[in-house]
Amino acid sequence: MTNNQHKPNKFWFLVGMSLKRKIKTKWFLWANILIFIAIACAFNIDHIIEAFGGDFNQKETIYVIDKTNMGVSDVFKQQLELTNITLQAKDQKTVTNELQDNEKKEGSDYIVKTYTKSEQEAKKLMKKDKHNYVMIFEEDAEQIIKTTLITKDYLQTTDLQVLTQAINSTKMAVAIANSNIPVSELEKIYSQAKIEREILTKDKTAQAEGTEMIMSTVFPVVILPFFMLTIFLVQMIGAEVNDEKTTRGMEIIISNVSPKQHFFSKMVAGNAFILIQGALLIIYAIVGFVVRLILGGGNPLGGMGSSFTSVIDALRVSGVLDKLIYIIPLTLILMIVTFIAYSLLAGILASMTTNIEDFQQLQTPIMIISLVGYYLAILANVFGGSIFIKILGFVPFISAILSPSLLVIGQFGILEVIISIILVIITNYLLIRYGLRIYKVGILNYSSEGLWKKMLKALKG
Asked: Whole-prediction pTM value?
């Protein structure tokens, strides 16, 4: 009775010691300080740029010299604002709302000013600030208006695209105005075209077309922490087991606890550490967001607010936001059981090695499998629902990041994800049942010859 009471105590003592070895180290402290700084800086990148003399949110000022006597300056200002918003917006409603907000808050990215002095005087303005441009409009018999754009340096691609389209729209507006077309017809011409989508393939909806942007922008950021934590988990368990073997501390430990207790203590401690680290990452993100609110600017992406808004719009239009109520719980469960699978496999392989170099060779296939899963999850939308990608979605070790991506793009349903979870649980059971045999033999085996033969022999025994 007394021995049974001491066994759990020894087990949790091993778990506690293992956690302390991971957490109470300078490496853990400095690594988390650097991670926190990186996340906080990512949320407040615009403030950092401005603090060092940058111009992240600097507006572009365009001085317009109108030589046409046709009010081109006012037309260009209207077309520039409309073009800038249209290129960023997803629908007509968004365009209308943005235009109204800009009128109230003067939130346009460009400031257009009519300039009455000479071109030479205008060019002097650009020497003071590279964000000052000069736009000259002149009448032209063939092209209606001739435009000259003067800048101090190269323009960014987005600015050039906006300005070019705005100039073309201005030219069209002036041409239409000179044609004496009725106002009712002008409204029809300027109204955005309505496109009704019809997709012949079953289970394909027009609303889900936005998932391509989600898979290429949002999803890589979401699954990257899982990928990194997986690598940390495998390396930490392997390093700890090898450290105990190389210092001969393993013999002392096994003389006091069973190999089974030792095996499970490493798994529990490793997964507890990963969950703690994952929770810390979430806390760092929240703190970074709060810091941003304090510094000013509610948008977590700062000057890239339009990109953030477009992502949210894509999530809403594609229906992903409505699915989060079951996507998040299923994904978390699948990730947790996969963490357990990786920790079991890492412990089994580490028990058969005698130094960290040998374990690094054995963990290479694990890293490759994890990396393949990461890239498949990002490129899942490219495969277009092929049988190949669906089968891989059920494969343990990579299903944790591949199945959720297939769920997001509509290739998997709740049932398929549940099947993936069950398959990982079965894999864990097999790793425990047969891997424990290898672990019992391997932790006290210091021979580095015939690694795979030793594993097969241990399985047969």
From this structure: 0.68
